[in-house]
TrEMBL record:
Family under the similarity heading: Belongs to the peptidase M20 family.
NCBIfam families referenced in this protein's UniProt entry, alphabetically: AllC, hydantase, PRK09290.1-1, PRK09290.1-5
Pfam families registered for this protein in UniProt: Peptidase_M20
Descriptive protein name: Allantoate deiminase
Keywords assigned: Hydrolase
Classification via SUPFAM superfamilies: Bacterial exopeptidase dimerisation domain, Zn-dependent exopeptidases
InterPro entries given in the database record: Allantoate_amidohydrolase, Amidase_Cbmase, Bact_exopeptidase_dim_dom, Peptidase_M20
Enzyme class: hydrolase
Organism in which the protein naturally occurs: Erwinia sorbitola
Domain of life: Bacteria
Gene designation per UniProt: allC
Secreted recorded as keyword: no
Length: 415
């Protein structure tokens, strides 16, 4: 494939306006008006570029460039359109834009591929509105279960199914077969960490994605008067949370890399200056590249929570709502991508992903690989999320080479 220098920046502006949060960054949550607008705007862009667009039952958006020789072999590429609250405009969005740009370039330069190329804007990955993750990719591979979302609600007590129906989408009909035409999935994504920047690399070839366990924990103590309740009489759930948090973080630091542990959400109730907090809801996000270590460590934390709560006369309700295994990427695709980096003089390294991605849902079912570009200062899930223009372009360039190899060459079918 001839080399090319894409200009990704012009597309980030228009898509970033849809879901720009006046309090900073991007907030584009599943099935919200801005989510609907972003999917519609992408559909229009895909249509204008001459791709055949479609949306599945739950709202995944596809742009298709049908293959001339093996139309039923689909090389799928893309990422998720949803964001965290006050997040950046590259996490997920960049992967969709880059896939669209690469396919557009290949179509205009080489015409129809041998195998079909599809860009997908996945409905949801983050789990930032509802306590459920990978809704988009899990519906494509058939691992999403209606019972897992039927009774869950967002922070405003909006039910998941009601939100889905209000946005014009519905459960995938049981009668609808799961797709079996996806021959490979390639996801370009920002690294969201500092490894590439620290080592002066422009491309990451991802070899595996960490396993993750996420929890909701609810501590029930006793609300009481801040002035008349002696310290020894209290069932203070913020105090209990602080002991749990301190002891667990110290344990995680002692465990060492690559284990990470985050208490991202802490909501005391009634959250009032002169009331001993009788209830505290908090979350746990724990990750590791090794499943056994992840399970062992989180089981220890669960036991510590019950011990501390018990010592303080407080009850602890522990809800593990995400339990994803660490997943290796496809060895042949990793080798293919590494070879393309060598052949095209890309400054790359092999690495694992500390962030979760839709690729970990596709990988057990179809050959999957991820390409990373550096994040400035390793910042992500933050309005300051940024990547140098040259690195954005290099990511699109290497994605295009990968898609060309898989979709336009006979040997691309050996994957
Ligand atoms: O949280 C993550 O790892 C990803 O950004 N959803
Ligand atoms: Mn994210
Ligand atoms: Mn992401």
């Amino acid at each position: 494939m001839k080399d090319f220098k894409p200009e990704i920046k012009e597309s980030s502006e228009w898509l970033s306006k849809i879901g720009a949060d006046p309090t900073g960054g991007m907030t584009r949550l599943l099935y919200t008006p801005e989510w609907i607008d972003a999917q519609l705007a992408l559909k229009k862009a895909f249509d204008t570029a001459g791709l055949t667009t479609s949306r599945d039952a739950v709202g995944n958006l596809f742009g298709r460039l049908t293959g001339s020789k093996y139309p039923d072999k689909v090389i799928l590429t893309g990422s998720h359109i949803d964001t965290v609250v006050n997040g950046g405009n590259l996490d997920g969005q960049f992967g969709i834009e880059a896939s669209f740009m690469a396919i557009k370039y290949l179509k205009e330069t080489y015409g129809a591929p041998l195998r079909t190329l599809e860009v997908v804007s996945l409905a949801e990955e983050e789990g930032s509105r509802f306590p459920y993750v990978f809704w988009g990719s899990k519906n494509i591979v058939g691992s999403a279960k209606a019972e897992d979302v039927r009774d869950i609600c967002d922070a405003d007590c909006v039910n998941f199914v009601d939100a889905m129906h209000a946005a014009g989408f519905h459960f995938r009909p049981e009668s609808e077969p799961v797709r079996s035409d996806i021959a490979a999935f390639v996801e370009l994504h920002i690294e969201q960490g500092k490894v590439l920047e620290t080592e002066g690399k422009n491309i990451g070839v991802v070899t595996s994605i960490v396993g993750q366990r996420r929890y909701d924990i609810r501590l029930k103590g006793e609300a009481n008067h801040a002035g008349t309740t002696p310290m020894s009489y209290r069932k203070d759930t913020v105090y209990a949370f602080s002991r749990i948090c301190y002891e667990s973080i110290e344990k995680a630091r002692a465990e060492g890399d690559p284990l990470v542990l985050t208490f991202g959400k802490v909501e005391p109730k009634p959250n009032t200056v002169n009331v001993v907090p009788g209830f505290t809801h908090f979350t746990i996000d724990c990750r590791h590249t090794d499943k056994a270590t992840l399970v062992r460590f989180t089981k220890e934390i669960e036991a510590d929570i019950q011990r501390i709560a018990g010592e303080m006369g407080i009850t602890a309700e522990i809800d593990l709502w995400m339990d994803e295994d660490p997943i290796p990427m496809d060895k042949q695709l990793v080798a293919c991508l590494s070879h393309l980096c060598e052949a095209n003089k890309a400054n790359y390294r092999l690495m694992h992903s500390g962030a979760g991605h839709d690729s970990q849902i596709f990988a057990p079912r179809v050959p999957t690989v991820m390409i990373f570009v550096p994040s400035i200062n390793g910042i992500s899930h933050n309005p300051a999320e940024k990547t140098n223009q040259a690195d954005l372009d290099e990511g699109v360039r290497m994605l295009a080479h990968t898609l060309y190899q898989l979709a336009y060459t006979e040997q691309g079918g050996n994957i």
